[in-house]
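A.,

Following up on our hallway conversation. Structure tokens first:
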């Protein structure tokens, strides 16, 4: 992944230096295990651990000659230790014993970083959900005004969805937290299972119950698909922000830093560029889902058609999700929420969003549903075509409406508060704690 979208800690996991360091650790632990089995003299592993070094440039030079990265790695490390001790390196192992075990170890660490990112993001969403529990906002279906809802409910929905991603991430982590040191076709022909058990335990992994020359790639596909799901929810939130920031809507705005400029031509622009960036990166991330699934299909006990894909896909996927989650957290921490604009949008066209309330009230007073629907729809369509007179005014001018509803009952149909009467019930159901009274502290009429 390019530096622009790489955060330091996650990026460091995928450097050549770190990859070879982890390969070396697998090799050294294997020597320790062989020493415990009596294969090598006591002290062999400790001398190797003290003296063995990784030289990235030397490995690259040898790989150019050998056209095999693991042979180049083992040869380069052997050059840094006593020749007698070097015999213990890679003893009984095949390349993928080292590569796949180290890769699982790296992916576990990467997923742990992403789990931290998710926890931080959910904390911000929880705070927004609680603060705006009773902040009315226009709900939209098909991009059009529907009925009033709570801005806090929007945030609570995202909080809950990312919670499901936390569960998925834990499951994917558990299934990728396995290693294999079982030889060329997975049946331990040249090393006992005890070697594998020792190495994986020391790395915090479990031995794969059964492997071929490789760990089966459904494990890796699950990781990538989980990351793609997370990225799609990031995109979902970013898209919501992008719509709500439109000039015609103006209900929220992502942070705009001092000195930031929105357009080289138009000084007035404050574009939702951070959210747009996240939507774009989500497209890249989703594009990795199909290669991850195709990597599951290998010939017999192993081919390397998956290898080139994973060298790109696994670093890029984890780096991107880490960057995207941090980016969304930053946006939401600085999100400008405009309750006054939300109220103004609810009141647009004189209460057209309350049409169902009027419909049900007329039906309740004895009018047939079809007749009531035709009456209310006609007033709504006339208002949309000519907003110089409000929906409310047009309805009250109708003799049928005035004959069935008294003025006070009619006015109550245009109150937003009843739409939020079950918000606290929903919050209790989803386990979103907090004091409901505290969330009423910010007036829905004021700005933040």
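Then the amino acids I'd put at each of the 448 positions:
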């Amino acid at each position: 992944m390019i530096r622009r979208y790489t955060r330091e800690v996650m990026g460091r996991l995928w450097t050549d230096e770190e990859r070879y360091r982890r390969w070396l650790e697998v090799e050294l632990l294997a020597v320790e295990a062989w020493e415990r089995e009596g294969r090598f003299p006591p002290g062999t592993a400790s001398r190797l651990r003290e003296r063995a070094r990784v030289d990235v440039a030397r490995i690259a030079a040898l790989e150019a000659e050998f056209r095999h990265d693991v042979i180049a790695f083992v040869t380069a490390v052997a050059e840094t230790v006593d020749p007698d001790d070097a015999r213990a390196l890679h003893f009984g192992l095949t390349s993928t014993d080292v590569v796949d075990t180290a890769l699982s170890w790296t992916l576990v660490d990467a997923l742990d970083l992403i789990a931290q990112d998710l926890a931080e993001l959910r904390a911000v969403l929880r705070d927004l959900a609680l603060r705006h529990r009773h902040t009315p906002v226009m709900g939209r279906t098909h991009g059009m005004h529907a009925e009033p809802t709570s801005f806090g409910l929007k945030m609570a929905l995202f909080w809950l969805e990312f919670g499901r991603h936390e569960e998925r991430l834990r499951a994917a982590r558990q299934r990728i937290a396995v290693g294999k040191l079982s030889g060329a076709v997975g049946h331990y022909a040249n090393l006992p299972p005890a070697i594998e058990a020792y190495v994986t335990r020391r790395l915090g992994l479990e031995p794969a119950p059964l492997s071929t020359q490789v760990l089966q790639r459904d494990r890796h596909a699950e990781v990538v698909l989980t990351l793609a799901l997370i990225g799609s929810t990031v995109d979902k939130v970013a898209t919501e922000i992008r719509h709500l920031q439109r000039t015609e809507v103006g209900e929220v705005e992502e942070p705009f830093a001092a000195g930031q400029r929105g357009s080289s031509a138009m000084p007035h622009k404050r574009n939702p560029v951070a959210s747009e960036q996240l939507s774009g990166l989500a497209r890249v991330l989703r594009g990795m889902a199909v290669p991850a699934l195709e990597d599951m299909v290998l010939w017999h006990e192993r081919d390397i058609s998956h290898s080139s894909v994973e060298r790109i896909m696994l670093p890029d996927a984890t780096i991107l999700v880490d960057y995207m989650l941090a980016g969304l957290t930053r946006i939401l921490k600085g999100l400008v929420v405009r309750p006054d604009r939300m109220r103004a949008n609810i009141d647009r066209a004189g209460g057209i969003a309350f049409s169902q309330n009027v419909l049900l009230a007329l039906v309740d007073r004895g009018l047939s549903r079809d007749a009531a629907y035709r009456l209310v729809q006609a007033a709504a369509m006339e208002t949309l075509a000519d907003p110089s007179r409000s929906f409310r005014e047009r309805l009250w001018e109708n003799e049928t409406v005035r004959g069935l509803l008294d003025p006070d009952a009619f006015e109550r149909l245009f109150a937003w508060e009843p739409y939020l009467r079950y918000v606290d019930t929903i919050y209790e159901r989803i386990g979103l704690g907090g004091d409901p009274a505290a969330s009423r502290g910010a007036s829905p009429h004021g700005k933040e």
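The chain is about 60% helix and 5% strand. Curious whether your intuition agrees with the design.

B.
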